[in-house]
Write a structure and sequence with these properties.
Low-confidence stretches: 1-26, 344-351
Largest sheet: 7 strands, mixed
Number of domains: 3
Helix content: under 10%
Strand content: 35-45%
Shape: globular
CATH class of the largest domain: Mainly Beta
Number of helices: 4
Distance between the termini: 37 Å
Structural class: mainly beta
Bound molecules: CU-O-CU linkage, copper (II) ion
CATH topology of the largest domain: Immunoglobulin-like
Radius of gyration: 22 Å
Length: 464
């Protein structure tokens, strides 16, 4: 990874680049942060047993890819070089980028062919925890390891002792430690998707995370799995949620003491390490009853606690998001359909033998211009999407280019005021989400269980 900072000429900065570009004279914010990301094959040791190292597809040879960090308001330029044997693109998940930077092949940009480059350049408007991944042959490219975190730092960081990232990935490995083939298996695609057998955190098998008694940790959790949903319990601790999907919310304790993250979802937690020095406390993932498993141990170092920060959890500064005006909203119904055990059959629905559909239409693969938008919105309009999951499966539904309010679930107002870019839809449930359609372009709306996306649970919205 090559990283350079290219300061703007001071005079240009002083002259002002317009009110929409926040910068302080002489600060890092008037600069461009540049990265070069090379997508290509690499070898890494994912498991500790005597199986050989795994050949993965990686950014800069690492899984996860390099953690990209930029200050809110700072411009980011990422030159992606494709050294894979197939075409790719990069999507900046959750970042409200201009449409041309969104990474959807055929819709917002051409594919980056092997041997070619593409330069992404944008100024992330929001501080928070985001991530990046391919949007071409996504099932295989993400499943083979192409993913990384993109952290946009607040202008005024909150006071914590440590800022920790847990980037969760889920792999299906065979006895030889190889990534199992069979991506896009139809049976799996019609069910919960490709759930793996090996979960890693930051590219390694989780074991123990050592913590100091009394410290206060900001924990950024990213679920970068293809299909696996996480339901994390922090034994002996009471994490406070500071943000979901990168967007700050009022600090609150976890609902049911469990952090539910579907694929692509993130949370920023505040953890006060109030445990006993020398003791270990498990973090359990019990989303799948039959797969309930200890993820890792929070292992306290022995010794005297560091001075405990006892003040109320800090609230993250808000991001410049436009508040939806529910009194003047365009309302659209969205019905998620298909899959095994749908009770409505899988035949005769959608196009070309797809497994899943949205409002009777199935866009397959990774997106593209081959299907008309589900609907069009006028720029600036508030839109309420009334989502109904008519299937027997969970779907983390992701909207590109926008964050949205989750207004209600199953007809009941959401007690938490939150922004999301991905809403987890349990089987047979409903949710209403609302956003201001302020970002012009054609935007994907799809399930982030990658098998579901590839098998038809995908559509586009047009904002003009
Ligand atoms: Cu992370 Cu189209 O998505
Ligand atoms: Cu789905």
């Amino acid at each position: 990874m090559r990283e350079t900072r290219r300061a703007f000429i001071a005079g240009v900065a002083a002259a002002g680049l317009g009110a929409s570009v926040p910068f302080r004279r002489g600060s890092a914010e008037a600069s461009i942060k540049e990265y070069r990301l090379i997508a290509g094959p690499a070898t890494t040791k994912l498991v500790r047993d005597d199986r050989p190292a795994t050949v993965v597809w990686a950014y800069d040879g690492a899984v996860p890819g390099p953690e990209l960090r930029v200050r809110q308001g700072e411009r980011l330029r990422i030159v992606v070089q494709n050294r894979l044997g197939e075409a790719t693109t990069v999507h900046w998940h959750g970042v409200r980028v201009p449409n041309a930077m969104d990474g959807v092949p055929g819709l917002t940009q051409p594919l980056i062919d092997p041997g070619q480059d593409f330069a992404y350049e944008f100024t992330p408007p929001d501080a928070g925890t985001f991530w990046y991944h391919p949007h071409a042959d996504t099932l295989q490219q993400l499943g083979r390891g192409l993913a990384g975190a993109l952290i946009v730092e607040e202008r005024e960081p909150i006071a914590v002792d440590r800022d920790l990232l847990w980037f969760i990935e889920d792999w299906r490995l065979d006895e030889e430690g190889r990534i199992a083939t069979g991506f896009g298996n139809r049976m799996e695609a019609g069910m919960s998707g490709r759930i793996g057998n090996t979960v890693t955190i930051n590219g390694r098998l989780p074991d123990r995370v050592s913590v100091r008694p009394g410290e206060r940790i900001r924990l950024r959790v990213v679920n970068a799995a293809l299909a696996r949903i996480a339901g994390l319990r922090f034994d002996g601790h009471q994490p406070t949620v500071l943000a979901y999907d990168g967007q700050p919310c009022d600090p609150h304790l976890l609902e049911d003491s469990r952090l539910m993250l579907g694929p692509a979802m993130r949370a920023d937690l505040l953890l006060n390490m109030t445990g006993v020095p020398g003791q270990s406390y498990p973090v359990i993932d019990d989303f799948y009853r039959d797969l309930s498993d200890k993820l890792l141990d929070l292992a306290y170092e022995p010794g005297r606690p560091v001075a405990q920060q006892t003040d109320a959890p800090p609230k993250l500064p808000g991001n410049p998001l436009p508040e939806p005006d529910l009194s003047a909203a365009e309302r659209r119904e969205i019905v998620l359909q298909g899959g095994m055990m749908s009770g409505m059959g899988m035949s005769g629905m959608g196009m070309g033998g797809a497994t899943w559909a949205i409002n009777g239409m199935s866009m397959k693969g990774d997106g593209g211009p081959d299907m008309p938008p589900l609907f069009a919105l006028n720029r600036g309009q508030t839109c309420v999407l009334a989502l109904r999951n008519d299937t027997a499966w969970w779907h983390p539904m992701h909207l590109h280019g926008h964050s949205f309010r989750v207004v209600s679930r199953n007809g009941k107002a959401n007690p938490i005021v939150e922004w999301r870019d991905t809403v987890l839809m349990p089987p047979r449930e409903r949710a209403e989400i609302a956003f201001v359609a302020d970002n012009p372009g054609d935007w994907m709306f799809h399930c982030h269980v990658t098998d579901h996306q590839a098998a038809g649970m995908m559509a586009t919205l047009r904002i003009s």
